[in-house]
Structures are given as C-alpha cells and as structure tokens.
Specification:
33% of the residues lie in helices and 17% in strands. The protein has nine helices and seven strands. S-adenosylmethionine binds next to helix 4, helix 6 and helix 9.
Amino acid sequence: MPETAEDRTDHDEDPFRREVVSFTRRGGRLTERQQDAWDDVAHRFVVDVPRGRTSTSVADGFTIDPAELFGRDAPLVLEIGSGRGESLVHAARLDPDTDFLGLEVYVPGVAQTLVQLRHEGVENVRLAVVDAVPALTRMLPAESVDEVRVWFPDPWHKKRHHKRRLVTDEVVPLVHRVLKPGGVWRLATDWQDYADQMLEVVGRAEGFTTSGDWAERFEGRPITKFEAKGIAKGRTIRDVSALRMTP
Ligand SMILES: C[S@@+](CC[C@H](N)C(=O)[O-])C[C@H]1O[C@@H](n2cnc3c(N)ncnc32)[C@H](O)[C@@H]1O
C-alpha cells in the first residue's frame, strides 16, 4: 500500500501527531445506496467526533460516554477496523443486550455498515470515523470496554512497512487502558507472520494473561470477505486472545 502525499503531511501541527499510521485509505466515493443510508441514518449511528488537524483525529478534550451514546448501561464491545461492518452487525444482531462500537477510518466501510444496519434493523451499534490510536488514548473512558476485537488488521506485509502495523507493543497500554479488568482482547489474522507478532505482543503484554498459544476460532465471528480470501489462498486463520488482568 503506497504512502500518499496526504499521509506525509496530514499530521503536521497536530498536537497528537503520529508519524506513522496504520492506514492509507480514508476517502473514496460512496455508492448511491451507501449515500442514501448515510443521509438517512448516520445521525443516529455515527458519532460526531470533533477533529484536531486531520479528518480521523480527535479534538483535544473530547470523550464519549458509552451510556449516553447508547442510551443505556450495557456491556460494550469495541471493534477496531470494523471495515464494512460484517462482523460488527452480525455480532450486534445476535446479542441485542450488548452494545457494539466500531472504529473505522474508511468512510465507505462505515457507510456500508449503515446500509447493513438499516437493512437488518439493528440498533445496538455505533460507529466512529476515527483513528483507533487517539480514540483508545483519549476518546474512550478508561475501563469502559468489556471486549476489544481486531479482525484481520491490514497486514502491511513488506518488512519496511511493519512499523505501520496496528498490533504492536505500543498499542498494548492503549488497549489495556480502555478494557475493564477481566476484559478480553481478541485478534485474528490470516497472515502467519503477523499472527506470530500478535502472539509475541500479547505474550509479553504487561497487565494481560494469555495461554501463549493460538486461541480457538472465535465462534461469534462470521466468515468475512477478508477471512474467506485468506482461506481461498490456503492460509491458516489464526486467533489470538488475552485477558486484561485485575490490578
Ligand atoms: C483488512 S481490513 C479488515 C476489516 C474487517 N475487520 C474485516 O475483517 O472484514 C482492516 C481495516 O482496518 C481499518 N484500519 C486500519 N487502521 C486503522 C486505525 N488506526 N483505526 C481505525 N481503523 C483502521 C482499515 O481502514 C480497514 O478497513
């Protein structure tokens, strides 16, 4: 995935500037159906995030209150990089007593999630078009999330791009911050080299316990486009999970 001019300049002057981000795609046109869903229901499902310098940043001082956002107190599952919302909407439909928040920088993906939410009449989902790093650092309250899910993060398979991967030692304290004690961090990838990295990262993650081995496939995840693509290419799908320890 080539670095774009926007990537290089986008974060200048942001007080929370990140030198390297885990994504490139933020724009893209919406289909007619996506635009229609956006116009119709975005105000109900998409968090209005005040920005810093960039379109995926979070203004200093902005936080969300999950109870206010969902209009109730319920367990909260956070999906980072929810893509087109396949897993998010599926999980929310099967578990109406839990709330689901998806963080996604790719606007057409969020719009497609709205298409699906509207079509299926699912209500217990909210979406934020935001980079997960500032969201985990500042937007979400500490110890507010019961489960963090990261399904098929961009693999950044070239070695010189590994620094762009989302699941690194640097993200551990951020996930730890938002998870409640006893909360679960679930990950999956079809890219063995990234799976090995995930296992290493959670294996040495301070404040987490893990089996040290691959987890069972999480049965609450449907086979999404990315998982199907990995299977079709003969790759092994790896699940990894870790438990946030009680202090
Ligand atoms: C390979 S796709 C997988 C999508 C989805 N999880 C699935 O399994 O179908 C990875 C997604 O993560 C998003 N992403 C990458 N870095 C992100 C970040 N820092 N914050 C939020 N989303 C991010 C990308 O835009 C992309 O949609």
